[in-house]
Model the fold of this input.
Amino acid sequence: MADKTNPRKIERDPNWRKKEESFAEITKKYETVSPFIIAQIDVQRRGVFYTDAALDRVDPSIHQISKSAFAVYEGRGVPTSLLLRDGTSIIVSETSTQTPRDPYTVDVVDGKLMLTDEDRVVEEVFFWEKPKFFEKTTSRGTPMCEVLDARPQRFSVAMSNYCHFWTKPGHGCKYCGIGAGGVKFKGTDEERVHLGDLRETMRELVKEKGRFVGVILTGGSIISGSEPFEDELNGYIDALKALGEVFETRRFPSQVNSTAFTRRQLERLYNETGITCYTTDLEVFHEAIYEWVCPGKAASIPYGEWKRRLYAAVEIFGKGQVNTGIVSGVELAEPNGFKSEDEALRVDLEEAEDLASHGVGLKHDVWHVVPGSIFWNRTTPSLDYYVRLTKGFYDIMQKYGIPSHMDSYRKCGMHPNVNHDRI
Ligand code: SF4
Done:
């Protein structure tokens, strides 16, 4: 029943544990899948809560802390995310206590920072350490941590902070909280990254020995321009040129994750910059569900055309340099998603096989229900579903000889299927 005092509060099913297999049961069931991968999936799916003892371990001079701490922590600095013993990153947001299932708890046990569930220890965890440039500001006074974001493996740039799909009511992707929150940037100086800030921050970053592995540029879609998405394309070209000034080589480890560009636009992106890899996420591997979940994307670029643009990207960037992702789990969202996990898995893997047969790499993010999104009150699939999907994607990439180095655990670490390479 809905909470009348807070209509957006996510209702938690008190019996959810009885309805699905536990982490311990799944690790036993899938012995060939690393327990670190299974932990990564389950924590991203269920979220985490930090105890006071865990938060006492946060050292702001060392650790990366969320820019805006969630109210439940009463303004205390909250770690940006977590690392496991094998170096696997677990991305957890500050809202991750608001999930349809009980979140994991990060606590201190026998002097160590531990992931726990129902008072049982699951794994040791570590907070992310921030790069040195996070303490600095650009000559314009912009904190460098706001120009380039960091993960242990790589850096990211939000080229555009506002997604045009949100301009038309009902056109934003239904799982997305970024687009809804980004409306405040519309028409402001902060709508796009400042190129001077970007250049200066990258210069500082590369001074840190051994830290730079790669940078990804992404952001909201920009429909405008001399043809659709030309302004978005120009935004990425300008940002890549600014970053490229820091490197002596023509190409440098970089990736753009953008809206799907046409062949002509992709050729411009590749020929005019030092980019090495390209991603454009289909988000859902089923045409009708894609149209329902991502109406803005579908109105601009139909499903089949998105796929054709991915195939063109493989011809331009090369096999192993292009991939596509899904927000895994939204394909089962009610009322228009698949009715069973078996059906969803079958279709996901069939479509994954079609894409891979054209040389497109595969990756999936684990859907975390975002409180501010249209899908704020939906439930994510079981852990069993995610493990079958992640193994299926990995096996398909192996079958079609698609190397995973572009988003490997050394360069990204975000996608459980790619992390199989660690074993
Ligand atoms: S394209 Fe979709 S997922 Fe990406 S920012 Fe826009 S609404 Fe969000």
Remarks:
- Residues 32-127 form one domain.
- The first strand starts at residue 48 and ends at 50.
- Residues 163, 165, 172-173, 176, 178-179, 220-221, 294, 297 surround iron/sulfur cluster (CB under 6 Å).
